[in-house]
Amino acid sequence: LRLSTTVDPAGRTSSWQGRVPVQPRKPRIRPRAIARIALAVTLTVVLVALPLWLLVINSFKDLAQAADLTLGLPDHWRITKNYGTVIHQGHALRGLVNSLLVVVPSVAICVLLGALAGWVFARSLLRAVRAVYYVTIAGLLAPGSIVTSVLWMQKYQLYGSRLAMIAFYVGIFLPLSIFLVTGFVKTIPYEIEEAARIDGSGRLGIFFRIILPLLIPILATLSVLLSVVAWNDFFSPLFLLPHSDQATLPLGLYAFAAASQWQLNWNLILADVVFVSLPLVLVYVVAQRWIVSGLTAGGVRG
Amino acid sequence: MSALLLALPVGAIVVFYLIPSASNLYYGFTDWSTFHTSISFTGFDNFREIWKNGSLGNTLKVTLTYAVAATIFLNILALGTALLLEERTRLNVILRAVLFIPVLISPLAAGFLFSSLLAPSGIVNAMLSALWPWGKVEYPWLGDPTYAIVVLAAIHAWKYFGVAMMVYIAGLQTIPSDLVEAARIDGARGWATFRHVKMPLLAPAVTFSVVTALVGALQTPDLVFATTNGGPGTATQVLNYLLYQEFAQGFFGSATAVSMVTFAIVIFASVPLIVFLRRREVVI
Predict the structure, then answer these.
(1) A296 and chain B in contact, CB less than 8 A
(2) Considering only residues 41 to 60 of chain A, which have any Cβ-Cβ distance to chain B shorter than 8 Å?
(3) ipTM of this complex prediction, to 2 decimal places
(4) Closest partner residue to B84 among A36, A126, A144, by Cβ?
(5) Mind telling me how many Å the CA of B34 is from chain A's nearest CA?
(6) Is B41 helix (H, G, I), strand (E, B) or coil?
(7) Quick check: B15 and A43 CB within 8 A?
(8) What pLDDT is attached to residue A80?
(9) Confidence of residue A301 (pLDDT cuts 50, 70, 90)
């Protein structure tokens, strides 16, 4: 068997020359590659699969069996009973509606206003507008101040209603929205807008018919990021949603788990944990790519 | 026209973000509470009070331990899994997707899950007992005054490492394969390639992941709410948990003072860190 490289008359390099039929080589089994796969699978199982299995399977058990928290299947399946308790006594469905009522408007407002302001800032050449831009994105630096927000929401007569929660989210998330959109708009050629202007479109017309559709990728990323953060937020609703009938899912879970009558009822608490976590995990199954790119926005360059 | 379009978004930021934040600088120095009908300026009294009763010193120690430990755990976990799952095979894509799931679970929910798993009679101790030949393990993971905060930091890392893992994977994929190949031809083995080729080129991803992890961990009390309620004693009383306690007791001025401390720590910890990590970044 001779390996030869020859140059054919046209000057192209070619090997083998077709003289020797190519032997299908058996893929070599590399022990390092196998060890690597084994380690990766083990890590994934131990770190995530096992805890999640324990979470779900124990939420199906009765009180006595869940107290042991074992890997095995339930002796007595208590799915409807446990989840029924979570829904009736833990007000989980109400929590779901409350979460939607707070998160959806907050994200929608941030995305729409962020798109509008980001576009205006990116296209303006005025120094005064520039200055306003830097003031608005100052909010990227600092977290919102929750305690004084309570005071100001009282002064604005919003405290006690969901509007206070929505307004707080808009205040802390809008700077990020504007920042991301401004950067994105700068990559869109200005000529597109100019053409529309010559065709007689007004500024709002240009925004809604030309700019907004082009912004969809960044707005999707932004919506994902804000939705996940707001959906899982527990700390700020603790201050700004004082009425239990407005409690979002995490607040409801906290109230349910802290209520003395359910303490150490791991089957019920874990059922509530599943209920609270399921919506986002289901969305993740459907829209995995968007979720990952949304949550890593800022960390991935190029 | 610009002014008209900007009125709503800028107005919202000013009214709902900038005004409350700016007034933070004032109310931390007042006796604002449920026990006074008016609010008056008291200088550094709030800070002096929480310093004298020991809660400020304690919470600073606890919060920094938590944040630093969580940042280290999180980044080691993320970098390790990223290196393992770097190649885009079908199996790796599935494993990445599974490892990312904790990111979507609310930190409070994760806290409740782990307080069940880590209970003295819980499954973690049961599994350790099976491996441990010298008797039953009944370690109170979340009840140890010294190590409970470190256990909480580990849970924090578990909950958030998925984002950093994806960032590291994306970073690894931007490294040109001919660089790695060249290092291999020069005789570099796995560790040397990692240390001298991949790691320097990953520096931007490191900056992002380390800074976001630290800033996040400095401000996340959710796990404490779900597991220890600050205890045993005050061993896991992080800044924002202390803030809530002051607030719940009606000491709004003190709570505001705590939030000023949090803000100061976030700035003083992250700005030098960003400057330091940025200097280490290299460009091809």
Answers:
(1) yes
(2) 41, 43-44, 47-49, 51-52, 54-55, 58
(3) 0.91
(4) A36
(5) 12
(6) strand
(7) no
(8) 86
(9) low
